[in-house]
């Protein structure tokens, strides 16, 4: 299968290249970068030595890219995918967008939170949280790949919301992310000497993954869900941990909570249930497409606390994108995604 | 002033030594360690070279220790302070206990959470969260120094609870701690290769700092406060960040929240208010006795989110202990505690 | 191919399991651990969830282990392999020992540096630095897998020594290793709070990899090579960087140095030459079987400086062991070893 | 004493501010920053909250700065000090330059290595490696503060060179530095996700601290010293470790080596000798002005290996600058420099 990547030198692009190198059906035909057009990918990322020998081209060649490809991954900043997607689908090719442009059913929500006009409102994109929307993904032509915080949060909360076990106005997601989530762009906050041995919250009440989580949970709830979402920056490279709080509805038992998770995820390869009392750790998922989930019922307060962990660059980005590609093209969903977590 | 430390080789003991070395009134007369009795403190901690040249003695010499000292700091595991405190106070000397043994007014709460019988129920200890209980601290003979998570959480929430601005059954504290909080004892979880690049929650619903936070907040509230407290282990050495959530009572304005913090803390040197919208970062407090606080009002959900940051070994342990000592002995409260945070 | 691992719960054992999970010909039949006999490998290493479901057995079952296996990997502390190897080879099965017991042609060198009697002097083991001894590896029944520092140092220096370009009494190897090289055993030195943000040398003049490097280089030199080898502990998990110094013989040109490296390694997949002026970085090899090499000629001092980088747990241990297995069993040498470095 | 700092927002400037806050004689009167003129230092470095409340001014006000100060610290990139120094000394005030502009007795060496014309050749600056040149420092008007690598290397090697114990053409310094040494400027190499878990050498044969080390050692040797100096970037914030190799002259005993160090440094407070067989660790010096030194005699190879450790921002920059200030103004040399290392 012929694959191209628009925006191959950002961290998400790098991860797509890393994962696709082990995908037996994948052939990477074009990779683009507007800043480093003409460079060999090895000069940008020397760890690809003896693996990739490919020259970066420009989005100006997008027609050629689309013609030569079966599917194009877009790993660009939000606001930049819409024109590209029109061109690629115009050539009859499928697109997987790893940014936010196609994640919202209601494009006015996108416009409000991202401050960018949406120019492709009739796109009919499918939201690709694979485990929850697999049937739709199979037929997707434009696939909106979810955000990293979003994937961790929605996977943790959906069984509770769908089964009506929690008060939907009581949900709080306290999320923690490794620094790679901020991407490759330079910034004082991510300068080594200032980022290490440090810890802080940011964007309280205003992070753009909030409405994305609310949209998905609302789809499974009987009412509109509004949540608190607080992201934190953790001094490590990879990993997201979402600690999710909700008030159990009166009379809901711990066993009902257990059943909700087991019945929802037991047959999913990429979801590893650690059970009630289980403690996911980001390290156990590092470099892999797994999402680990554990939950706790606190009788003193009547709350359920769900903790989920995943690798923000894999299940939270490039891995899930490849998982969606596998589904879209009728391949075994696990193809190229069986890399063992790099615990050490 | 003559000072001794029981349990000088743990991390809390080490920090006491570090801080007291810069305290102009302090003279360290005895330091004890049961594992390393007879060793020079320099052989245990070579960074004290050219600073301390002192031999570790044993608790078996506690009578001598007490006689030679004006105050004894106890930095032992919980359950080990009670006998020592009786001996020391029997010599008419003051004690500052950095463990949990004297933190609970109701000793049955201690016995329930710590699974140890309390053998000194009539101790009349004072709970030393200095900014909140300064008047009592002045007259303390037995000072119970608060826990690290506790200090961060109580300082963050007290202005809201005291002013009746939040629903006291809605409080959730999602706390994150550097690994030094777990002490010097060896454990697979804190082995470098497994602790770095990792993140997890632990003791959900069961951490022993929970009832300590509840006790202090209940004192300022009009009713019994029951909270959710979730600790997390962060791959860094020092620092605690507490992200605290509570539902604002109907009609409470953002300005009322601001006023509560400013009126409560504006004259406190060790509390730095970053204001509404402020983001504390643990790095800004590292090695110092500061606690930084910022708060956020989320109108979408009606919640207030307070974030506090401090150094778990300083304001969360040894620094606050010295602050309490200064108050107990009528010295300037800042003495020996003006070390600038080691940002880098 | 049926494979067993003696000592599967140490870091080297864990890496063998990680790598073999992606090896299309490998089937892991037995794994042993004397401390955790009877436990599921998932309870020891939860990151193997959904990948391995295997119970740890004991070395007491070694006869069964040997009978059921085509090859047995031994990942035990030095001194423990010799009895096991005799048993396994007694069953006509091949052995790959990742420890030091079979690395020395002259067993008295082993006995001198390791302070253990050698009880299997007629073993006829092959030293498995694959790129240098491939022909012998093909026919090995007992394969002595090299040490991590050793692999980095020997690969860096062999082209110079073999071509007679440097004074063999002038060689200094200043090596730096991530902390995983010290294994899973608990020790104050590797306790997170003490290992992070720290840097030190250790075992100067006495590290056991010294005679191993000298043995291999001497084989390629016209005389006995004696070197200085200084290991350092670096606050990171994976990676070795060896900075090697030698005096160029009079008249040797920079181009001769270049030729020595290119002619020696140009066709090797796992050796990536970065050329004269190139700077290997451990991150570029992380999780992979690559060794990256760059070199520098300093005309001011007449010295050549060679820098090599590799992952101590892969090319420096488990990866090279699998590479040797592939060669020993006539498989493509790259099988199961094409994992892309985890740069992030 | 009135002190100003030109370039107060770089890491060296920040450290000067940190140290001077605890210096009982110091009053900081002006701080400058060309990028952030007009800002409060607290908005640049919030950890200075409740400590400094000062507005950054510009070098355009240098006349006022000089008039108001007894001494001016210059913490600017090389090439920028010379004009400023002329202005400040023109006002009769002393200067301590933390950059390279005044470090070379032979300004043509500066011009060759730094590629900048030297415009102040008759400056009569004193090279401020305090322990070695204390008498000259007392009378300095322009003080050239040494580099970080330089201080570690020169302190390690001087006793050997001065006593003629080693072959001066055999010296190799393999040095390792924390990332703060690269300063606050943004660069992909120091981006958290790329700098952590990484290790590499750089500037082999060409680092500008090379001629500075050679100049100082040559002063103590009977001949011109030419060395190899290899710097490495270590994934930690603070600390330099220099591993120095030299061939002992025939007949030199280990005891002579011991004597050289002890007689040279035994009365120095900031030099802590760990003795023969001692292993300095950067963590033991963190945040302090100490330099720890240990040495090893390898009889197999006839070499001596000296290891020194210090904090690159303190003894390697701001701390030594304050030490020099103390000497220049006749104060106790330890004033303001007794901060205990922050081991944790």
From TrEMBL, chains A, B, C, D:
Pathway(s) the chain acts in: Amino-acid biosynthesis; L-arginine biosynthesis; N(2)-acetyl-L-ornithine from L-glutamate: step 3/4
Subcellular location: Cytoplasm
Biological processes per GO annotation: L-arginine biosynthetic process
Enzyme class: oxidoreductase
Record flagged with keyword Amino-acid biosynthesis: yes
Domain of life of the organism encoding this protein: Bacteria
EC number assigned by the record: 1.2.1.38
Boundaries of every Semialdehyde dehydrogenase NAD-binding domain copy: 2-140
GO cellular component assignments: cytoplasm
Catalytic activity field: N-acetyl-L-glutamate 5-semialdehyde + phosphate + NADP(+) = N-acetyl-L-glutamyl 5-phosphate + NADPH + H(+)
Keyword terms, alphabetized: Amino-acid biosynthesis, Arginine biosynthesis, Cytoplasm, NADP, Oxidoreductase
Main localization, broad class: cytoplasm
Cited function: Catalyzes the NADPH-dependent reduction of N-acetyl-5-glutamyl phosphate to yield N-acetyl-L-glutamate 5-semialdehyde.
Entry-linked PANTHER family: N-ACETYL-GAMMA-GLUTAMYL-PHOSPHATE REDUCTASE, CHLOROPLASTIC-RELATED, N-ACETYL-GAMMA-GLUTAMYL-PHOSPHATE REDUCTASE, CHLOROPLASTIC-RELATED-RELATED
Homology family: Belongs to the NAGSA dehydrogenase family. Type 1 subfamily.
Protein's recorded name: N-acetyl-gamma-glutamyl-phosphate reductase
Species for this entry: Anaerosporomusa subterranea
């Amino acid at each position: 299968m012929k694959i191209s990547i628009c925006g191959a030198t950002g961290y998400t692009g790098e991860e797509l290249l890393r994962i696709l190198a082990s995908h037996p059906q994948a052939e990477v035909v074009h990779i683009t970068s507007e800043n480093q057009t003409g460079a060999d990918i090895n000069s940008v990322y020397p760890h690809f030595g003896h693996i990739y020998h490919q020259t970066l081209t420009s989005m100006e060649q997008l027609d050629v890219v689309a013609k030569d490809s079966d599917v194009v991954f877009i790993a660009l900043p939000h606001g930049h995918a819409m024109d590209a997607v029109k061109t690629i689908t115009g050539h009859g090719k499928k697109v997987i967008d790893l940014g936010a442009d196609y994640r919202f059913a209601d494009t006015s929500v996108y416009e409000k939170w991202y401050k960018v006009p949406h120019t492709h409102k009739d796109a009919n994109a499918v939201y690709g949280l694979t485990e929850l929307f697999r049937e739709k993904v199979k037929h997707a032509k434009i696939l909106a790949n979810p955000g990293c915080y979003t994937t961790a949060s929605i996977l943790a909360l959906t069984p509770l919301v769908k089964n009506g076990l929690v008060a939907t106005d009581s949900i709080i997601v306290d999320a923690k992310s490794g620094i790679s989530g901020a991407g490759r762009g330079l910034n004082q906050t991510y300068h080594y000497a200032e980022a290490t041995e440090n810890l802080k919250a940011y964007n309280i009440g205003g992070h753009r993954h909030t409405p994305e989580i609310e949209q998905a949970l609302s789809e499974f709830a009987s009412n509109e869900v509004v949540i608190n979402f607080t992201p934190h920056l953790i001094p490590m490279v990879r990993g997201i941990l979402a600690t999710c709080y909700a008030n159990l509805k009166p009379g809901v038992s711990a066993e009902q909570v257990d059943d909700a998770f087991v019945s929802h995820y037991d047959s999913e390869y990429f979801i590893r249930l650690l059970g009630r009392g289980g403690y996911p750790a980001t390290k156990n998922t590092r470099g892999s497409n797994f999402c680990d989930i554990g939950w706790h019922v606190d009788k003193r307060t009547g709350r359920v606390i769900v903790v989920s962990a995943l690798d923000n660059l894999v299940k939270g980005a490039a891995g899930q994108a490849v998982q969606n590609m596998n589904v879209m093209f009728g391949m075994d969903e696990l193809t190229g995604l069986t890399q063992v977590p790099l615990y050490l």
